[in-house]
Every structure is written in C-alpha cells, then in structure tokens.
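Submission sheet (multi-component)
Chains listed below:
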Amino acid sequence: MELDVRNSNHEPVGFALVQVHELNTGGLTDSAGHISIPVPPGKSYRLSVSCTGYIPLETVIASSSAKVHRSFILKNNPSELKMVRITGETHGAALKKNAIKAEVINTLEAKEQPSTLIELMNRSSGIRIRQAGALGSNSDVSLNGFQDRSIRYFKDGLPLNYLGAGFSMSLIPVNMLDHVEVYKGVLPAYLGADALGGAINLVTRKEKSNFVDISYELGSFNTHRVSLNAAYYSPDKKYFIGVNGFYNYSDGDYTVDVQFPDEQTGVLRDITTKLYHNRFSNYYVEAYAGIRDVKWADELRLMVSGFGLNKQFQFGTTMFKPFGMTHGHQSSVIPAIEYRKRFLAGRLEVTGFAEVNTLNATIVDTAHGHFDWLGNFTPNANEKGEISNDGTLSDIGYHYLTSRGNIRYNIMPAQTVDFNIVADNFMRKGTDEYGKRFPDGEDFLSKPASYRKLAMALGLTSGFLNKKVQNNLIFKFYRYRTEARDMTVTGAPERVSNQNHQWGIAEGIKWQFSPKSLIQFSAETALRMPEQDEIFGDGNFKLANFYLKPERSLNFNLGYQTGKYQKYHFETNVFYRRTKNMILLMPLYFLNSQSQNVDNVQGAGLDMDANYYLTPWLKAGGNFTYQDLRLVHTGNPSREGARLRNTPYFFANLGLNAHFQGFFFRHDKLDVYWYYSFVRQFYLDYIPKNMEPAGFLGLWGNAGIDAQNIIPDQDLHTIGFTYYPTSRPLAFGFQVKNLFNAKVYDNFRIQNPGRNYSVKISYSLFKK
Amino acid sequence: MNKLAKFSLGLAVCGLFLSSCEKEKTTTTDNGATQFPYAILTYESNMAQTGYLTAFSKFPSGAVSNITSNSLQVAAAFGMTQYGNWLFTRSSNAGQAGIQKYVVGSDGKINDGGFLPNGEMFQVVSDDKGYYWDPTRGTMLLQIFNPTTMQRTGQIDLSSLALPNAPYNSVGQHIIASRDGKLFVGVVHSSDMGANSGYGDDTIVNYAELAVIDIATDQLEKTIQYPGLGSLGWGSSGNQMWTLGDDGALYFYATGMSLLPPLSVNNSAIIRIKKGETDFDQSWILKANDYQPHATFGTALVKSGKIYVQLPTGPVQDGFTNLNDPMYDYYAIDLNTKAATKITGMPHTQYAYGNDQCILSVDGKVYLWMGNSSTGENGYYRLNEGNNSASPVFHLTEGGTISGFVKLSNQ
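Outcome: structure written.
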C-alpha cells in the first residue's frame, strides 16, 4: 500500500503514525507525508492515521490489486497541543548569568545582516568602539571608560597578539563567530592575560555537523566582503576538516569636509572632497583538520592560518594633513595545534594550544614631498616621509610562540577547579633604511628585542543552594622578562633587561533568587604589566624606563538582571574603579619622551539595558551608559577631579526589530530593524572640573572656558532588513548606515563615512 | 566694519611708530584702547599639551588663575609673541602646526585672527608685512605674509646661500629678526638628521651666519658671519632667541646645544649687531662658559647698560637630562665689563624654553619669570634695578606653567 497523508491545506503531514490493525504493523510518514506498507493482496485492512495536532482517522482499505494508492486528509484538532516548547540556554546566555558576568554579543543572530562586528558591539551597553574612518581603519575599544592597552583581546580564549591586525575586530565577518564575550572589569580564569579594564573574547564557530556558510556583501565605497565557513565530518563523526576565511576590500573613498590651504595665500578654506588614498584589502584563511573521540583524545585539531593585509594611509591621527603614498602591509602563516581530553569519567578535562609564527610588517613612507587633499603632489627633499619627516621603510619580523594549557576538574558536581596558564614569547627584529641607527651605524631594529610573559590563574567555582548561588574565586600570577639593546639619552648603546612579577585576585558571586532574576557582584585587583616598547622605548627619542610599575586597578561590579522569555529583559550594572599608575607616554628632558606611571583614575558608572516585546513580532530595546571617571591625586588643581579626557561618558542606543513570517509567501521571513545610536559630545583635553558643562551630569551645555577641541554629539541612524525567501538557505540583507548623512566623528577631526549602503547575500546549509 | 578691519585701521595709524620697534618685548605704556591688555599663556604638563590663553584687564597681582571664563583652551603652548594688539602662537588651538594669530576682543575673549598652516619661525615687521619659514615650501625659501589678513603674499628665494657640500641648508629656521628696515635671517648649513635637521648639527661650518635682507625691496643684501659659533637661535618654539636692546642693538643667542651624540651644550654665547649697523660687532661676545661651563643662553633683556640672562648653577649634562631642572638664577651682566651680579630674592627657576618673555620689560620695569616644579612657584618677580633684588608680583594657582606673558599695546 502506498499511502499519502495531507492536512486540510493539502500539505504533506510528516511523522504521522499509520497502523494496520490486522497485521499489527505500520510506521511513520516521511517529510513528504508518504509511507509504503507491504500487505498481502486480496484482503481488507483497517487503518488508523494519527498525528499530533490532528483529529485521528480510521478507515478500511480493500487491497484488491498488487499495489494500492490512497491519500488521507487529516483535519486540524483545535483542542490538542500544537507545539511543545523546549527552552534551554545557549552558552552565551549562560555566561551572562555567571558570577563573573560576560556581556554576550550573539553574532549568529545577525549573521545575515550586512552589519560589522563593531556595529553589533556598539549596540550593547557599556561598550563603545571608536573607528577612525572606513573599513580597515583603526578601532579603539572603550569598556567602562578603559581604553587602549587596558583592554585585552582573545580568540577562543587565546591572546590575539600573534595575529597582528589580521584578525582585528573591524575586519572579522560576523558569520565567522559564534558569539563575542565582553568582560567589563573582571576576567574569568580561562582568559589568561593581564587586563586592567576588561577583555573581549571572539569565539569562533565550531559546528559539530557538516555545514557550508557563504556570504557576500557589496557596499558603498566599492566595498566587498566575502566570507566562507565550512566543515565536513566523516560519517562516523571521527574525522573532520574545515575552513574559515574572509576577504575584505574597500576603496574607502568616502566624502569628507576638510580644510584646504590655498597654494598662493596659504589660507585654509573648507572643501568637500573624496578620500583618494584610503584603499584597504585583507584576507584571512584558517584551514583545519582533526580527529575526535579516540582513546587518547576527545579532539585533536591541527590548524594552519594565513593572512595578508594591505592598507593605504590617507591621514594620520587627525585630518590636518593628507597622505598620498604611504602604505603598509602585514602577513603571516600560523600553524597551530589544539588538544582536548577528558579523564575520570569526564570530571577532569585537559586542553592545550600552541602556535608559532612570524608576523611580517612593512611600512613604506618615502614620499619625499607632500600631497594635498586633491591628490596633487609637491616634491620636497626635506620631507622624506608623510607620517614623519624622517620617513620609514621598515620591514619588521615579529616572532611569536604562544601556548596555553587549561585543566578543569570537577571536585564534586557543584565544585570545579580551573587552572590556566598562557605563555607568550615575542621577539622583534627588522630593518629600516630610514630608521635610527646605533653610533656604529647599525640599524637599531636589527638588534632583537625580546619579551616573555607568563599569565597563570587558579580558580574555584562553587555552587550552593542547588546552584542558585555561584561563587568564583581566582588567584592570578603574572611574570614578564624583557631583553633588548637600547640607547641612552646621550645616544650610547647599552644592553638592557628587566623582569617583574605580580599577583592578582578576583572574586565573583551570583545569587539567582528567582527563576527570572539574579544579582551578580564581582571584584578584582586587576593589573596590566608594562609592555616591551613601554619599557625599552624605541632607541631614539622615546627613552627606556626600567622602573615602570604595572598599572593597578581595583574594580567592583554589581549587576541585576531579570527577564521573561519572549516578553522582556532588563539588566543594570554599576561599577566602581580605582586605578593607579596608569602608563602614559610623557615628554621628558629637552626632546625625549618616556612611558611613565602618571595618572590615577577613580570613578563609577551605570549602564542599563532593556528589551520589551511590544507584540510577538515587534521588539523594542534600548540601553545607556553613563560613566564618571576622573583624575585623582594629580597635584594639579586644574586637573584634580577632571573627567577623563578623550573618553565618551554618555552614550545610548535605541532599536526596533520586527519579525514577519509569511510576508510575501507562505514560508518566507522578513526581519526589519532600526537602530539609533547617540554619543554625547566629549572633550579632547581635560576640562577643569569647575568649568565643566553645567547641565545635569554634564549631559548638556558647554564648558565654562572656550574649549573648542570637541568630539561632537553623534546621532547615527541605521535601518535595514533581512529577507529569508521560501527557498532557504538563502538570505538577503540590506542596510543603510548613517541614514541622515550626519557628520560623524569618533575621534578628533577624523570624519567617518556619511550615508552608506550595503547588501548582503548569505547561503547556509547544514546537514546532520 | 568687521573687527579685523577696525584693527587694521588702528594698526595703520600706529604703523609708523611701530616700525621702529618691531620687537615688542619691551612693551609700550599706552593701553588706552585695550581693556584686556595683559595675556598669559600656560601649559599643563608640557608645551606640547593642553594649555590656556587668558587676557586680563589689569596687571596680574597676587594669586591668579589662568583658567577663567575668558580663557581659550589650546592644544599646545609653545610660547607666544606679540605685535601690537595681536598675539601669535606656533600652532592652532586644535594643535595644527602653523602660525596662529589671536586678537583679544573687547570682552576679553580670545578670538581667532587667522592661521598660516606649516609656518614656523616668523617675524612681523609692520601691519601688513611679515616673514616666516615654511619647510613644506622649501627650506631655502623665506615666505612673506600679511599679518592683517594672515595671507601669504610671496616668497624670497635664498637658495643661492646653500652650500653644496652641506646635506641640509635652511634660512629662517631659527632666527628672523628685523630693525631699521632690514631683516636678519639665520642661515644654517648642517648634516641631515631628518626631522631634526638644522638643530645643533651644523658642524659643516664653524661660524654663525645671518642673511641681511632689505625689507622694502625683499632683496638679499649680503650675508654676515660670526666665526667660532654654531647657528643662532632654536626655532622649535615661540621663543625668538633674540632681543632688541634699549641701546638699539640686536642681541642674538647661540644656544650651543647639539642634537648630535652625546647631545651636549658647548660654546653658548650672545652676539650683537649694534644700532645703525648691519654686521656683527666682532669685538663683543658674551660667552656662557665664562660664567658656568656647559651653560646655555635662552633668554635675555638689555636695558640701561646691562644684559639680564639666566645661568644654571651647574653644567647642563649630556642628554640635556637636567636642562629643565629648577637650577637657574638670573644675572645682571654689565655690557662693557661683563661683570655678572646675581639677582637675589628669588629661588632657582627653570629654563626659559619657549617663553620669549622669560625676562621682559613692562612700563619701564623688569619682570623675571619664576617657574619651579619643586616648590610649585609659577609666576613673575619684579626686579629692583637699584639693588639687583627681586620680589614676587603674581603667581598662578591654575592653568599650569607659564610659557608666555605679554602686555598688548594700543592699536
């Protein structure tokens, strides 16, 4: 008997149970609603057909011939359960509820949007990433007011340094990531680094099934972004191979408003022109193969990554002066190995990672003249370079050897010990024809400078009251050693070395006092060890400082969150920081500079984030961050209590997301979104406290002095949609950024792109 | 009529008077039309970082804050110079390198008066004429500008003065002075040290050299040399490194500093061109080493037969590691006998650096800058010329270290 089961809309009903009572046999229909049941001919059989959500059906079929074809129509059963919802937590959602809280950016959710990772992160509370231009430009993360080197970056728990600019946040396509963890203040044990103000961990996709995910994005300024992620598992799932890769290209020729000096009079006049030397391209490919579930390993993964990056420089730290020839290049090939094994019935887990690579970086700054904003070149023997008059033709190799080991042991179901160790070996060696030389004429860069750092953490995670209360206690130890050949202030060569070690401690506790709500508290004596260039200088006018102390910060975080699935979510966090010995590059003597422990910063902040489903298909959300971080113990009355300079202190986001099913066709899907981002103006330099804007919390008004060096208010609107046609797995995304073509500045006098468009097509195929 | 035009008209009226005293370090007594005739420029931690420019209605006295509602915050404060009612600094308030003109408004606010990008050392010789050095246009070119409109109007090509065997040549990088219709422009022949070329690396020749240019015709008249010295001046800041004495002579400072290893100070001196002459007075030289080995002259004022200078209490060490330590005293040195008398009544001060008004005369009185990072002193003392003692006049409570203090003259 060949049987087809359909519903009243004549759609196939899969997984319907068909029983032949006389033969005590039967089965389930396939996804096409079909089932084939062998029966002896010449008899009549009583059949019953049933399926969840439908009224069961019974009928009698006479099998008179060799093959019988029949169709059944099942009617809907309005009183029966239609759906069973099984709710669980993603890894990211669970991290958000840990004692040491992570802000989790769910990149997979937005992978079909033509949004950059930076845009996604900027929509979260407490995080502000500033960009200096278009694709490929520098990005600077601010977490609760900490910036630059206070923040550490990781890829799958490993410090990212060895990948240079190849895996920068501004370049990675969201398709490649499973999620991003952002730790504001306190770091968990498995992130081994001396981070003062927080960390960002980029967690890549590690699908356990065969899949292909391809996307292509076309945007304004001749921007092209391609990503490919694919994996293949052998039928027994024992062997696997895969590839992750992306390619970015952009002319970056967006329109800017700049000042153009008249050739004759020298007078600056405002002009609007296109950038002409801002092209950027890069690729990153990571191929891997591995074996799983063998006696000696749960998983062994071998990886080879490679990347290349080419960048033109159109301007420096401001747009005062255009560059027309300077460009840079970076590349590296990185073999790596990762091992994971559980012992003692899964109670003990050991993981290890190791990589070795040489990162080659070149900068060519040999214009011997200067360009104007229209691309005209004026030769000038006195101006060897554009970035600096001295020029640069540097070719530097950065040699990395990075390894990480992690041991996790479940002492008992609610008690886990973590031990994490990260060893970083770094050595710099290169040449620069235009660079500085030792008195004997030897190139300063030709002498190797090495830096070795060890970061260890021992953590205990304990659960109490049926894990409603979770406690994390972590001890941390850091050690570094540096060695280089340097020059004294008088230009004499000297061999120098330095080492230091420090301890840190972190504590976090969470109390989930109801299924919906919890509070979290964490504290850490965080530190950042001085880095190689801060200790040794550059052998030129940036002097060594062997007495640099680590930056120290005492961080407290308190958070509350509550929510109901598909209804609402609310969370708020407050933080307090007291940081001392912040390292800044300071001018010294007559013409030198030196990294010194100078600033002490103290302050608190508040961020709130809320989402609410106005209807089942329309979600509204918003967040804001206010941080009041100020200099203390300066010994300078006009600096004492001044708000941290060049740091956004109030920013907010609003968003609306609508989700439609069956919009054009029966099974299509349409997501429409609007995001608004606001950053309150902030000052490039310190404003004396008594001269700050008088408005409430400084949220409006201007400084009491004539302070014109402002990064102005930023209002940025983004709209877009993602359409999933019936014939999945395709998806189409379209987005308009900076909808109202506002002049946007993240950094002083560096204009970001105006209104720009992008479309993205994605193809995702999974097979179990 | 806009403000600029009004100032221009005023300047034109006073032009004749001013043409005879281009270097207005010794300011006039007439301040009738300027309600805020005093201006202070400060920097917070160093000259390359944030500072404040504030105008005051009265001569500062006692405890003074340089952060008021009239203050302009500037990104850099490498000293300033003054011409009539105008102030000039070496970078825009946003920090862009160039010649920035400011005008003090009737409300005491500091207003933008125009900007010449890339301009470095400069000299205003009249209301509508000034000269500046712009290395992006050429190191052997001297640019001409109109200070009223702050527009470049031309250039003088002095490439004929370059020495073929010198890797680097420049004119006007460190010294541009004027007097009696003549312009005196420093000429440097040095090694190539990239961005630092011309700074104390002029070992190619063993003389200090100036080009003499006729201001009316912009024609090179001649070059003059003083043997045995490195180049005059140090063009990195608003400190012009020369002064016009009340005896009518121009006094130039040779810092003796070298950026060649081991970065030392040697052979600093002050030399002069006497009133009415256009050549060096080869019979007169004031050598710093005669008072303190490895000392350097960075500021001076000539008044009533004396030259007032700063001298360190010990040698400036190699690498300039103690150059900015509070170890300097002021001295009155007799122009003829060269006998030095220490100014008493004030603690040690720091090096003048970019402060062109480190020693200045206002309304006939001599004022001495006092900056001491150790004691926190930061202000000016008034000199009693009768007994060579000084007493405090004002000190700053806010705004940082003083890098310029001027009295504007009436325009």
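Remark: Chain B touches chain A through 60 residues (CB under 8 Å).
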